[in-house]
Design brief:
Elements (H helix, E strand, L loop, with lengths): L1 H11 L2 H15 L10 E5 L7 H11 L3 E6 L4 H7 L7 E4 L5 H14 L3 E6 L18 H22 L3 E11 L11 H21 L5 E7 L13 H11 L8 H12 L10 E4 L9
Parallel strand pairs: 1-2, 1-4, 2-3, 4-5, 5-6, 6-7
Length: about 290
């Protein structure tokens, strides 16, 4: 707990965190309405009010969807405080490295929440040491841990919870351009995101016969707490704003709007895809 408090305090002193607050305010001005009454969503990855997972949870809930949050014990205090802004949420601890906790999580979901329609995977982890310098400096333990938490967790969660998914459900995972391009300092996380995107496609094939869609949202760089661990992230933000076709960075609200679309019937024939929300950054060739 002390570690995350220290990280948050450090982040608040950085330029990119001020940018996050600016983008968050801009996002609140652009409300999107979508009728999701009667739908239920299970969301993993809420840590702070700057989390992409939090913006998605809030957007879904604001549009009538009941939400259940799976969170790590270390952020329990923050999640419970944020949950006060939600309408009747279910809160339960879950750790991507603990099979028993994942099993218990879905047992709680089955008893207290029932079948659901949306699963959001916004989980990733790598030691800060391996998000700077040379990629080849990652050690075996660091590599395996990053893959287990950031990539293997998606099929693991689907396997544990798929019996509770309604037909026509939507599964979405958060990814980043570093999966298909070598981006300085992103290193092992880029390799994890590549594995995550490949997993997404195979899951889309596995679940397609039930009408369940599986997609990934590739967001542009966003100043979240997790992003603060990537070396030189403030420079990445500046570069993305200049290079993107729309000449701006995006906000967590922009990603939440895409999540609303993927959660709705409007996307009923979209599956196995990576959808970019990056103001055109990924297609600029120079």
């Amino acid at each position: 707990m002390e570690a995350i408090k220290k990280a948050m305090q450090m982040a608040h002193d950085k330029k990119f965190f001020k940018e996050a607050e600016k983008r968050q305010k801009e996002g609140k001005k652009m409300t999107v309405s979508m009728d999701l009454k009667g739908k239920k969503a299970v969301i993993f990855g809420v840590a702070t009010d700057k989390s992409i997972a939090w913006s998605i949870a809030k957007a879904l809930n604001d549009n009538g969807c009941q939400v259940a949050l799976g969170y790590q014990e270390r952020v329990e205090t923050y999640v419970k405080e944020l949950a006060k802004e939600l309408d009747n949420p279910i809160l339960e601890k879950c750790d991507m490295m603990d099979d028993l906790l994942i099993e218990r999580f879905f047992e709680t979901i089955e008893k207290e929440f029932g079948k659901f329609d949306i699963l959001v995977h916004s989980v990733a982890f790598a030691k800060r040491d391996f998000l700077q310098g040379k990629f080849y400096e990652v050690d075996r333990k660091g590599y395996n841990t990053a893959q287990e938490v950031s990539a293997f967790s998606l099929p693991m969660l689907v396997r544990a919870g798929q019996h509770l998914m309604n037909e026509g459900a939507s599964v979405m995972a958060m990814t980043y351009l570093g999966s298909v391009m070598a981006l300085q300092n992103y290193n092992v996380m880029g390799v994890c995101k590549a594995a995550l995107e490949s997993s997404m496609r195979y899951l889309a094939m596995d679940l397609g016969e039930r009408g369940i869609r599986v997609n990934a949202i590739s967001a542009g760089p966003i100043p979240t707490l997790a992003a603060s661990g990537v070396g030189g992230f403030d420079k990445i933000l500046d570069h993305a704003e200049k290079k993107s076709l729309l000449k701006r960075n995006i906000s967590t609200s922009d990603v939440a709007h895409m999540a609303l679309f993927l959660a709705s019937p409007l996307s009923k024939n979209i599956t196995g895809q990576v959808l970019y929300v990056d103001a055109g950054y990924s297609v600029n060739g120079w």
